[in-house]
Structures are given as structure tokens and as C-alpha cells.
Amino acid sequence: MYNYIVIEGNIGAGKTSFATRFSEECNARLILEQFEENSFLPKFYEDPERYGFPLELSFLADRYQQLKTQFSAADIFKSFTVADYFIFKSLIFASKNLEPLEFGLYSKLFSIVSSVVPKPDLIVYLYLNLDNLKNNILKRGRPYEQNIQFDYLDRIQNGYLEFLRQQSDLRVLLIDTNGLDFVAREEDYEWIKGLVLQEYPLGIHRIRNSSGGK
Predict the structure, then answer these.
(1) 20 to 30 A from 162, CA-CA: which of 73, 94, 175, 197?
(2) Burial class (CB in 10 A: 0-12, 13-18, 19+), 117
(3) What is the model's pTM?
(4) Cβ–Cβ < 8 Å for 84, 33
């Protein structure tokens, strides 16, 4: 069994919902990103050019501090660790949100920070198409997310997929979740859970479902 599993996905993919239930059922330590505490996030959606750099810096600092604190203290009562984000999402989002000069500086800072954070044994990417992502965002009703555009979701999705394709030294499980509802339908959740609990060699592994995903 893996010691450290990351559940990733675009905005609205359901990563926190799956990670939370999965960790409870498997007696795993759960690390959830505290994005709602970031005061720059609503401002970024209103004015991305002005607030992109402070937003990405603050997210990087928060993620680093949280992961460093969690992994410096062992929990002997938990079987393994599950997180709903990977530290490299900071670099992915920054590459799409920052100007070249800003991103150059950010990348230097990121390389220092990321070098001391453990790498996951398995990254699970919950893939949803843009229409389903947008529907999920609208349903959960966070005011500052309601005006997120398809173009932005598309850029973030492409950033994730570009990054994951290059990770030959990591285990990546890319699961098509279009046509599934792993929150409301037990069989959908169990199907994904079963996939996550399997052993995989290094590299990317793509799993299509039979419910009309693309």
C-alpha cells in the first residue's frame, strides 16, 4: 500500500469530496488545502493581473507550511496520508496566471520550497470535461467562483495534463470521471476507490469509464 496519496483535479473536479471519504474509510491522515482562508482569492477572480502574483506566493507559502507541519509529525494511528492537492499545483497555476518575469522569479522560489516536501507515491487525477467542471462550480455556490470562465478552466486543465505527461518518475492515475457521480452514487465511488487501491508501476495510467466519458 502507498504511504502518501494525492487526489488532484481541476477546479470543481470533486477532489476534496473523494479524498475526505476515502481517508475516513481507509484510516488515513487527511490533508486538505485551506484555500478559503486565502484573502487574495476573491480579489484574484476580480482582477487577475493585479493579484495573480501575491495570490500564487501566498498559496505556495500556505501549502509549504501545511505539508511541512504535517509530515514532521508522524501519526502512528493512521495507515497512510491522503491529500487533496500536490505541491506542484502551485507551479501549474502560476505558469498560467503570471507574466513571464513574475513566473521566472516564482519558479526560483518554488524550486527551493518543493525540494523539501515529500513526493507522493501515487497521484490520482480526477478528469472532468469543462461543462461538468462548470456545473459543479455553479452547484457548490462559492460566490467568488461563479464567474470563472471556460477559458480559464481549459488553461488549468491543460497545465495539469502537460505536467502529468512528463512525470516518468511518479505514479499517476488519470481517471475519467465524466458520467460518474461518486458523491451520490455508491457504485461510482467504489469503482474509483478500487482503482486507487491497486498497485501501479511508475508512469501515467489512463482509466476510461463506461458511462459516456470522453
Answers:
(1) 197
(2) middle
(3) 0.92
(4) yes
CATH number at residue 163: 3.40.50.300
Strands (E), 2-157: 4-9, 29-31, 81-83, 122-127
Give the full edge-to-edge strand order of the sheet including 29-31.
29-31, 81-83, 4-9, 122-127, 171-176, 203-207
pLDDT above 70 coverage of the chain, percent? 98
| pLDDT for 211 beyond 70 | no
Q: With beta carbons less than 8 A apart as the criterion, state whether 135 and 186 touch.
A: no
CB distance 175 to 125 below 8 Å: yes
Active site residues: 84
Q: Count structural domains, the chain.
A: 1
Is residue 3 within 8 Å of residue 38, measured between CB atoms?
no
- The 10s digit of each residue's pLDDT in 136-173 is 999 988 888 888 999 999 999 999 999 999 989 999 99
The mean pLDDT value for 1-12 works out to 96
Residue span of the structural domain in which 167 resides: 4-207
